[in-house]
Design a protein that fits this description.
Four Helix Bundle (Hemerythrin (Met), subunit A), 129 residues
Length: 129
């Protein structure tokens, strides 16, 4: 089976993570901090934004992959992928802003959690049918 959908979202989320990582590196250089956060509040925030993406995106991608391989329609997998990417971007923008934009952060987590839950339920259904 050729994967047609999951690689699209894996690429988009990889680029998002690279962008968030570049923001961490940029702040590290500006603050002169090689390891840790040096107590720099902006660096701490950037590290958390990057880490949060790294914590949730892989599970979302794994669930996308499982569902695509299990035969879920491309339309459903695209829908789940769009929800995941939108959630991760909203969360990163909301948490990463100064001051943070709480509504974007909340929407981002709601979308991310919804995608994870829907994908998990779908994977379970496809596995037992």
């Amino acid at each position: 089976m050729t994967l047609a959908v999951t690689p699209i979202y894996a690429a988009i989320l990889a680029l998002l993570l690279i962008g968030l990582s570049a923001r961490v590196v940029q702040r590290r250089m500006a603050a002169g901090v090689s390891v840790g956060d040096g107590g720099d509040e902006d660096l701490i925030k950037r590290i958390r934004v990057q880490a949060n993406c790294a914590e949730y995106a892989p599970l979302g991608l794994l669930l996308l992959l499982v569902n695509e391989l299990a035969g879920a329609s491309a339309l459903i997998v695209h829908g789940l992928g769009i929800i995941l990417v939108t959630g991760r971007v909203c969360h990163a923008r909301g948490l990463g802003s100064s001051p943070q934009v709480l509504i974007l952060r909340k929407v981002g987590m709601l979308l991310t959690f919804s995608m994870l839950a829907l994908s998990a339920i779908l994977a379970f259904i496809l596995a037992v049918i």
